[in-house]
Amino acid sequence: MGIFDSVFGKKEKTVKKKNELPWIQLESMDQLEAIAGNSKNKTQVIYKHSSTCGISRMVLGMFTDTYDTDLDIDLYFLTIQNHRDVSNAIEEKFAVRHESPQLLVVKNEEVVFHTSHGAIADTDFTKYL
Q1: At what angle do helices 29-38 and 84-94 cross, to 10 degrees?
Q2: Does residue 39 sit in helix, strand or coil?
Q3: Which residues pair with 110 in a beta bridge?
Q4: pLDDT digits (tens), the chain, 129 positions
Q5: Complete DSSP assignment for 69-86
Q6: pTM here?
């Protein structure tokens, strides 16, 4: 620390650590069936992400910053460009029109909540535990 730093009150930089989310990569139809079955005992969340969309990237960052990592939820991540078939199957299985980014909360084999875009970061998961 230099003399001018102490005189002019230079503040130390703080680096905010990003949450490390416990993502499970969603890549197969078998996993989709398992999500439905597991939702009888534990809340399941599917996050649909577009790797080519700036808005999707921004929303993912907001979601990561606000997600409570202490929640007892299985958190699945689907990159729609890599697994369009799974994305289409989600729409058919749960009767929820596709959007991206999109978040679906599955409980007792049905979607009990879904949202998209900026509203994703405001989701209160405690309502679905």
Answers
A1: 40
A2: coil
A3: 107
A4: 555 555 555 555 554 556 789 999 999 999 999 999 999 999 999 999 999 999 999 999 999 999 999 999 999 999 999 999 999 999 999 999 999 999 999 999 999 999 999 999 999 999 999
A5: TTS--EEEEEETTT-HHH
A6: 0.85
